[in-house]
Amino acid sequence: IYLFSLLLMICNFFVSIPAQANCELPETTHAENVNELTGLLPRDTRGVLAVDINDLLYGSSATTVTGLLNGQGSDAALNEPFSAINELAENVDLAGAMKTALLAQTTEASESLFLLAKLRCDTISEVIKGPDLTSQGTYGTGAHAMYLDLNGNSLSLLQGGVLIVGKRTVVQSVLDVVDTVSPSHASIIDPFLSVLHSGSSFIFVYGLPALFNTSISADRSLRGAELVSGSLDFSGTTISGSVSFHTSNASIFVDNYNKLDSASDEAPLFVNAPIANDLSQVVVTISSTPINKSANQLIASRNILKKLFPNMQAFDYAEDVSDPGNKPWLDLIISSEEDGEGSPGSVFIRWEFKDQAAIDAFEENELPAGFRLAPTQFLESDKPGYFLVLNIYNGAGPIVSGARAEWDIFVKPPDGDNRPRYLAIDVLAEAVSANSVNGLTPPEPLSYEFQGNDVVASVGKIEDGVETTIFTSSFPRPNPTPDTIARYTREMAAGNDYIYWGNGVLDRGLYNATTFNYDAVFVDLNQTEITDYSHWKQYLNDQPTYAVYYLNTLEYVLSPWWNLDSSYLDITPEWLSELYDFKNNGNYLTLMRDAVRSSFRGTGDALTKFDITNTTPATYYNFKITDPDAMSAALKLPAGYSLAPTHFFENDTAKDYYLTLSIYEIEGAVEGTRAEWIVYVDNGNGREKFMIIDLQTEDAGVDPVSLINLPSRVN
Predict the structure, then answer these.
(1) Which of 490, 493, 501, 497 is nearest to 371 (CA)?
(2) 85 by DSSP, 3-state: which?
(3) What are the backbone dihedrals phi and psi of residue 258, each rounded to the nearest 5 degrees, phi first?
(4) N or C: which end of the chain has fewer CB within 10 A?
């Protein structure tokens, strides 16, 4: 979070530390150079980084900074801006001739970055290294000589030693300011440029999307921050400094952040007075940290970024949770053996209905009005059919904990959705829980555990003070072999997106990869003991068709009681009012606040949402990788990761290696349209995962590699 960073290829040319060029121009200070160079910035400048090259290359950090200029640092957030300066100055004797560098960007992303620098010389032959440059003639009323450098950029050197390098159009716009054809100090960030005189050797000012887009308003996050500035002091192999976000909600943000981060040993945020536009500053202190960071140190710096942006966005979302209003989103974790805490995995025990008469009676007696059973293919080895499954599992997370037994069916709801959807027709739970049919329910006598090598379930119920056994089962811990592996269907997994209850109220579920993308194991029914006294056995065959058992933990995000405004709820007005009251009593708000606090402490995940509405359709371009080995070598994948073959459609007969370009827009996102370059990787468990290897955005945004991702031409 502490750097002005840039998405550029690392350069293949190198800087050394030679003696200073012997030129006759008068000596000037870094502050004087910055003052002169900022006076030449064109009207559409949105960001500036000022670097005291002389101080850094001839001070205690010379060796480390030389490595950064050559793209040899470990942190992209430092590597990229220094590499950008080096690339733009490739044809210039940077170390020998340059004193101060201003790396800048305009609001026109196609112009990319440009360099203004104060040199010790103002004769082109004295500052250029390598072959002579090609002349591009002259430009402007001052007839300024222009050259084409070896990277295809335009270059001009003014009398007095001011160097300009960049795309031809932006170099000409600077020369227009030099010739007073365009006004000086006319950019929107100019009122903030006094920051560049703080005395540090690395200082930046950058206009964020809210500075240019008045529809982006401040909330409880940094979404509405209009500008970011910062400074770094280099000392040997370490840096320290601060970053400031200029925003109208600074005091509120700092107060909320510091309360959430009270358990941290990091310095608290504080508020500084406005520099311009009545925007107070949220100041983040950067304690002394290595320039070249270890992996753990890189993670620590990104954790600060995570707290400042995603976590505070989650906090802002959580504070408005209500119905109507922001929907609550909560983790739902289904435990398994892989957790290492002794819990069996989730098991589904399936029974078929006795006959058509049983199906008809079930629909008539048990389903909410307008719902019908839906034929569903549960496993890939199944044919579509009507059935009931008893799902027994141990839950973890804020909304479900302990043992739980759910009797589930697949239905066609009355809203016109023709896909099968889940419906929990009955539930019993070991811990206090809430559902839309019964409201808050007391704990029941349930257990689901290992007893030796057996998986044993006991499901009971207390009525009028009397405990009654509803269901028991016992089976040997399943052993995965080729003959016992079962594969769930996509239809079954997608059914979990909408989990209905017996009155038509539904819970909205997300992220079913852990349901669909993992194998299950058939339970040996010949070694299974079952007693069933449930209400539901009257409709079902005596013996189950099969039982399947998950070896992996299931991870979902759930929004309870999603559709209280639906017209088809089988519910009285009085009970609907009770459900609204329960949903809005602050319980879900508290749970989401707790998740934010857990994320600040590093013990959980804060949840917020983003919607891809496809107003402009999201598009995926998939390119086959012809040489996966060469691609892997070029990407330098993290240890333990390898490229994974995949396929996109069910009728694809074979998997292959792909590079995907994904272009989409998140509703309301300040960075606008995103272009993500993606490969598919495996970290050892045989399941493909996305890995974003490059990101381009329409406007500036936050990312965990460069910290601030500068805009590109994406639309």
Answers:
(1) 501
(2) helix
(3) -65, -35
(4) C
